[in-house]
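To close the section, here is one more complete example, presented without commentary so you can practise reading it yourself. The ligand is manganese (II) ion.
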Amino acid sequence: VDVKDLKLLARKPGDPPREIKAGPVTFGGESVVLIAGPCAVETREQTLAAARFVREKGARMLRGDAYKARSSPHTFQGLGEEGLKLLQEAGRATGLPSVTEVMTPEDVPLVGRYADVFKVGARNFQNFALLRALGGQPKPVLLKRGLAGTLEEWLLSAEHIAAAGNPNVILCERGIRTFERATRNTFDASIIALAKRLSGLPVVADPSHATGSKELVEPVALAAVAAGADAVMVDVHPEPAKALCDAAQALTFQDFEALVPKLDRVARAVGRKLL
Ligand code: PEP
Ligand code: MN
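Output:
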């Protein structure tokens, strides 16, 4: 496998994997980074409670979106700037850096005032104007693989960000659409190893959006770490039944607490660690 136009981000034989720093957190180093939090920022209480709990149990970064790319316009679309403020408040209260979605090039300066890492969602992975805007600023970008994105398309989207000036790209495998509808998407563990081999960029796994089901989050998270993922990102909600977005895949606090030591054991089995 060779991606001809991968130039700035190509990994040559013998090159070590790239490390990308976001505040106190390093992606691609010895430690596997655990990112957790609600799919969407809904209220101050919900975001703070989730941040406090996941921080206490071993998360190193807080997730939570203020801008949601939803298939239906008749569903919760996010709180916008108010949500960014609540995420920042929860991050500061817990000492966790944050990652949050940005959907348009115009929003990049605003989102960048509040968040430590930008997230480009699967539906925007080839929004080239957005990728260019993110290349024009220095904060790391977590770039999700598109719903039907090939490895080449995904890596070239990362290359777009680098070509515009920012090489700090973190890839995120979140499953791809296949004929299988029993899972929300089909998680592709093999692509983690291949993406790292070709680019050396850190790769995050998102078992929540890959499976769409809280029962499947743990086995897929463990598989991802075994396959070499540099980070795992999971949806956690204080009251999943009341979640305004992706309720079926949100872990309870209890689920999250049970997952962490297992992830740490698998990480250690492959020469890394979580805690
Ligand atoms: C998300 O991370 O909340 C999300 C919407 O995921 P994706 O873009 O992978 O569907
Ligand atoms: Mn979601």
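Once you have examined the tokens, check your reading against these statements. Strands lie at 20-22, 25-27, 33-37, 61-63, 98-101, 117-120, 141-144, 169-173, 203-205, 231-235. The chain has a mean pLDDT of 98.
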